[in-house]
Structure to design on (266 residues):
């Protein structure tokens, strides 16, 4: 397996710093989820008119881009669907330039919707987004109201697009749906093509608090051992949400700590 991290970890770093630190800490790749103050990175010159130069800069560093993380939703207000299709289309264009294999999307909040209808609507939207992704994988994250692996299986069985797959966020099904690693991998393993890694605890107030590896209660070793035994050979991508949680340790702390922890599975 190879190591990557999303740019949520380092919202203050420029590209030169991101690449230099990634190499220094022993990562193989970067997953872009925002850059600077912009979440839709294809709106920035570095990832539009200057994308070819950015691709050369990344290649010259010896790194690759493991994924482009969109904010597109499968289940949402129908009025937003065209914007999400456009978002994935724009990321697919950027993926062609940066040679990125995968675009991440979310399932979205169900908001009390009837489950059969929600699965049908989400599957139909997934097929539209998968078509927009072109030759790239469309990775649906275990997130929002889609952390129950049984529900994710229903969704995946309803999607006809061959490039649709699952991104297993190791934290969410375990913490939010109470699933054992064996249950999640047993149900979703054949669909998993990407992984988000993070450790954490539940505070006395019931809030999810992310921690450095080994300081939380997520059974990361068991999870990654299961994946390795099951033949997963993709990226282990740290999702350290410094952008959303400024109180978290900075990237100069979190990135080397997780790289050291994950190196045993390389």
């Amino acid at each position: 397996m190879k190591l990557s991290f999303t740019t949520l970890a380092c919202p203050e770093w420029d590209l030169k710093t991101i690449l230099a630190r990634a190499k220094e800490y022993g990562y193989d790749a970067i997953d872009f989820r925002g850059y600077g103050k912009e979440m839709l990175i294809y709106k920035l010159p570095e990832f539009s008119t200057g994308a070819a130069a950015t691709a050369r800069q990344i290649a010259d560093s010896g790194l690759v881009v493991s994924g482009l993380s969109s904010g597109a939703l499968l289940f949402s207000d129908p009025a937003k669907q065209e914007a999400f299709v456009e978002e994935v289309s724009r990321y697919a264009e950027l993926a062609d330039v940066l040679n990125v294999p995968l675009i991440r999307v979310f399932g979205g909040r169900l908001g009390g919707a009837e489950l059969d209808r929600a699965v049908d609507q989400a599957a139909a939207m997934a097929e539209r987004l998968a078509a927009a992704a072109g030759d790239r994988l469309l990775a649906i994250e275990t997130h929002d109201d889609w952390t129950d692996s049984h529900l994710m299986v229903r969704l995946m069985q309803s999607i006809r697009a061959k490039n649709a797959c699952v991104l297993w966020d190791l934290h969410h099904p375990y913490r939010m749906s109470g699933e054992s690693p064996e249950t999640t991998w047993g149900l979703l393993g054949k669909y998993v093509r990407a992984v988000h890694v993070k450790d954490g605890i539940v505070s006395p107030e019931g809030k999810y608090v992310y921690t450095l590896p080994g300081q939380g209660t997520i059974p990361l070793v068991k999870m990654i051992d299961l994946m390795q035994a099951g033949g997963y050979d993709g990226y282990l991508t740290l999702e350290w949400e410094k952008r959303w949680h400024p109180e978290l340790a900075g990237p100069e702390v979190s990135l080397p700590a997780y790289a050291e922890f994950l190196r045993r599975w390389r």
Observations:
- The mean pLDDT is 98.
- The chain has one domain: 2-265.
